[in-house]
TrEMBL record:
UniProt-listed InterPro entries: Carboh/pur_kinase_PfkB_CS, PfkB_Carbo_kinase, PfkB_dom, Ribo/fructo_kinase, Ribokinase-like
Protein's name according to its UniProt entry: fructokinase
Gene Ontology biological process terms in this record: fructose metabolic process
Pathway: Glycan biosynthesis; starch biosynthesis
CDD domains found in the cross-reference section: bac_FRK
Chain spans, region Disordered: 1-32
Organism expressing this protein natively: Prunus armeniaca
Family matches, as PROSITE patterns: PFKB_KINASES_1, PFKB_KINASES_2
Reaction(s) the record says it catalyses: D-fructose + ATP = D-fructose 6-phosphate + ADP + H(+)
Catalytic activity, EC: 2.7.1.4
Family: Belongs to the carbohydrate kinase PfkB family.
Amino acid sequence: MANNLTSAVDKKLVLGEDSKDPSSDAKGGSKDDKSLVVCFGEMLIDFVPTVGGVSLAEAPAFKKAPGGAPANVAVGVSRLGGSSGFIGKVGDDEFGYMLADILKQNNVNNSGVRFDPSARTALAFVTLRADGEREFLFFRNPSADMLLRESDLDINLIQQARIFHYGSISLIDEPCRSTHLAAMRIAKKSGCILSYDPNLRLPLWPSEEAARKGIMSIWDQADIIKISEDEITFLTGGDDPYDDNVVLTKLFHPNLKLLVVTEGSEGCRYYTKKFRGRVAGVKVKPVDTTGAGDAFVSGVLNSIASDLSLFQNEQGLREALLFANACGALTVTERGAIPAMPTREAVLRCLAQVADKK
């Protein structure tokens, strides 16, 4: 009984349930905020080797780090001075409380976090091998994030959002898949901009075909899509990811406001109904690429949330994408995803240094 009581108290402290207003400032994203970015999906514990360039089997030890792409983006937006919230489920365990508290510490509205007493918080072991390939080992059998139900949704938080952002991992299993689709419907009905980063993780899907079908099943509903070169190759069945015609004929759809293709350190390409082009990357010495794509997304979404005219303003969009490229670049100079998410000040300093070198 004492343990249950302690657990309930911990949960209140972590979620800030002792405050009078459940959407108050301490958690970010107040009711009056018109530029809120709400991220939906998984939050988990990444275990990364204490040394670089080794396989998981060779790693002498691991360090725990908070992760999960949608949660990374939520923290990234907040670090940049924006307003964000997160919706997802963690275990009713120490890791779950830790993750919810990390959101709170980073001024992310965590009122949409739910705790599952019957499943553990997801774990992932991640490494970047010496050959440059990333290696993943997931523990989700099932994990709490897979068990988010429609009745768990914080509908009020979704309705407050200007942008509703999600990935594809939440589409793999029920009941989370149905919950994801319901959340998208609520967001669309509320006038939110829908943002999609497929974030392909093949080991989690039953098969390559299931992954391709699952990712594409919600493709046409997104207003913003961010995709990598590797994901283009995968989704198109092996087509050239650098061919604009491949992107425009196979991946750009009539409802899209913006499609961005990330090219790592080389920068990104952008496609809208009116214009397309590319923005060069920001060169840095990489330490750990984990979270770089999520930092990029947070940079893009934070800019768009505060200025919707960027969809029609090519120069403004190019500036926003350069800012996002700098967000990604700064993230790879440190280990881990959430710990490495940059502040707005750090990004502006980085861009000033780039300008000085020209």
